[in-house]
C-alpha cells in the first residue's frame, strides 16, 4: 500500500470552488469572472491566492484572459469526437470536419491555409509508403465553432491518386467530403488508424488556436487505408485539449473469435 | 489565408537542440544533462536562457529534475497503447494492464492500493446503470515499468455480479485477468467504449505518478459491456501524457454497410 495523501493548498480549494460555480452557471459561458479584488474580499483570502487559483483555471482552459476584457468564462462546451460515427456520417452528405460542431448547434467554419502540391515530409512519406520528397496534395485548414478555433488539420494524399480530382484541389471537397472523392477515384476507405499524443503547443499552434502556451493539445495522426492495406490519406490534427473528449468504441475481438469457432 | 508566422525565441531553439541531442543519444536515457552553467558556456547563451530551455523539456517530460541528482533524461521509451490488441491478448493469458510493458521488455509491476466493496460514486453509478451509493467492487492500482509509475487505474464492478469471485477480491485476478473472470461468471465482454480527456494532474496524481504539476495527463474512462448492452466494468485510468501514445483502429462503417447491401 502506498501513502497517497497530499495536502490540498488553499489556492487549489479556491480553484475548485470557482470551477463548481462555473458548472452551476453562477458565472455563465462568455461572462466575466468577478475581479480578483472582489473575489479576495468575498472569500476572505489574499489576492495572491485568488490569482494562483485563476491561473489554475486558465491552465485547465476553464477561463481565458482577453486583453481589455478581463477573465472570461469559456463559451464553447466540451465537444465529443466520436471517431467511428464521424466518418459514417459522410453518407448523409456531411464532411467529417464539421460533424461535431453541427451536433452541438454551434456554427462551423473552415479556413483553408493551403491547398496544393508539396513535397512529402519524412513522416508523411513513411506513412503513405512513398519516398520522402515525392509529390503529395496537402490540404491545411483551421476549423472553428462559433468563430472560436477548435482544431488545425493538415491532410495529405499521394499526388498520383488525386491529381485529376478538381474538387480535392479546391476548398470545398464536395458532398461527403474527401473520403467520398477517394471512393469515386477507386480507393474507398476501408480501415482507419489513429495515434493520439498530448503535448504543449508550438508557438504557431499557440497563436492560431488562441490558447495559452501552457495548455496541452491533442495531436491525432490518422492513416486511412483502402483495399490491400494501401494508405490513401494522412490527417494530422492538433486540437486544444480542454475543448475535446475523444470517443472510441469497438467490439471485443476475443469474443468475436470465439463466436466464429 | 491567415498569417501563421511566429518568432522563435532563443530558449525554444535551445530546447529543440537539446531534444535532438537526447534523441541522437548524446545524452542517453537515465543520464544527467550537463549543468546549466556548462551548457550556457558551450552554447554561448545566458544561464537564464538555458534554464528556460530546460523548463520546456521538463514540461514536455523529456527530462526530470531529481532532488540530489540534477536533471535526468527520461529513461522510459514512449509506450504505445493499442486499445483493441491489449484486450485480445488476454486469450494468451496476459491481463491487459501489463501488455505494453512486456512488449517493450520493460519490467512490469502492479501495486494495489485498495480492493473491496465501496459505495458507487455518482459517475460510476451512472455508467453502470445502478443507483448512486449502491455497492460496487473497486480495484485501485498503480502500474509501473522498470519501477517508474506509468498509470493509475481504478476498476469498478457491480457487487452483485462479482461477489462470489474469490479471484476478483484479491490482487492477482488469475490467468487472463478480470475480463476472463467476468466471462466465467456469465458476462463475457462484448463491446468496449473509451472516452479520452487531457488535463493537469491532481495533487494526488502529481505525487503518485512522479510528474510535474504542469505535465498533462491522459484520463481514459472505459465502459465494458456484455450482452444486451449491460455495463459490467468501469475503468478510470490516469496516465502521464508524455509517456503514452494511444492507438485505435477500426474498419469503415459506411463501406461495411455498402458491402452488406
Automatic annotation (TrEMBL), chains A, B:
Matching entries from SUPFAM superfamilies are given as:
Chorismate lyase-like, Winged helix' DNA-binding domain
Does the record carry Coiled coil as a key word? no
GO biological process terms on file? negative regulation of DNA-templated transcription
PROSITE patterns tied to this protein: HTH_GNTR
Q: Does the keyword Nucleotide-binding apply?
A: no
> Which Gene Ontology molecular function entries are recorded, alphabetically?
DNA binding; DNA-binding transcription factor activity
InterPro entries in the cross-refs: Bact_HTH_transcr_reg (IPR050679), Chorismate_lyase_/UTRA_dom_sf (IPR028978), Tscrpt_reg_HTH_GntR (IPR000524), UTRA (IPR011663), WH-like_DNA-bd_sf (IPR036388), WH_DNA-bd_sf (IPR036390)
Give all residue intervals belonging to the HTH gntR-type domain. 8-76
Q: Where is the signal peptide?
A: none
Q: Note the Pfam families from the entry.
A: GntR, UTRA
Q: What is this protein called?
A: GntR family transcriptional regulator
Amino acid at each position: 500500500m502506498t501513502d497517497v495523501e497530499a495536502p490540498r493548498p488553499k489556492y487549489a480549494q479556491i480553484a475548485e470552488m470557482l470551477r463548481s460555480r462555473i458548472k452551476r452557471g453562477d458565472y455563465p459561458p462568455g461572462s466575466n469572472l468577478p475581479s480578483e479584488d472582489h473575489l479576495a474580499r468575498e472569500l476572505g483570502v489574499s489576492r495572491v491566492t485568488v490569482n494562483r487559483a485563476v491561473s489554475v483555471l486558465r491552465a485547465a482552459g476553464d477561463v481565458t484572459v482577453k486583453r481589455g476584457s478581463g477573465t472570461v468564462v469559456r463559451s464553447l462546451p466540451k465537444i465529443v469526437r466520436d471517431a467511428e460515427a464521424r466518418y459514417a456520417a459522410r453518407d448523409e452528405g456531411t464532411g467529417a470536419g464539421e460533424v461535431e460542431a453541427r451536433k452541438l448547434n454551434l456554427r462551423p467554419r473552415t479556413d483553408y491555409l493551403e491547398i496544393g502540391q508539396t513535397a512529402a515530409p519524412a513522416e508523411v512519406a513513411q506513412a503513405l509508403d512513398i519516398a520522402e520528397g515525392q509529390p503529395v496534395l496537402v490540404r491545411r485548414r483551421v476549423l472553428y465553432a462559433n468563430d472560436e478555433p477548435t482544431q488545425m488539420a493538415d491532410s495529405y494524399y499521394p499526388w498520383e491518386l488525386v491529381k485529376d480530382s478538381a474538387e480535392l484541389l479546391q476548398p470545398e471537397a464536395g458532398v461527403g467530403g474527401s473520403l467520398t472523392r477517394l471512393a469515386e477515384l477507386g480507393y474507398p476507405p476501408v480501415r482507419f488508424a489513429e495515434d493520439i499524443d498530448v503535448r504543449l503547443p508550438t508557438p504557431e499552434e499557440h497563436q492560431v488556436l488562441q490558447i495559452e502556451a501552457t495548455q496541452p493539445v491533442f495531436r491525432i495522426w490518422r492513416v486511412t487505408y483502402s483495399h490491400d492495406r494501401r494508405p490513401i490519406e494522412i490527417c494530422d490534427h492538433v486540437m486544444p485539449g480542454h475543448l475535446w473528449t475523444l470517443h472510441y468504441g469497438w467490439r471485443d475481438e476475443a469474443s468475436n473469435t470465439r463466436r466464429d469457432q
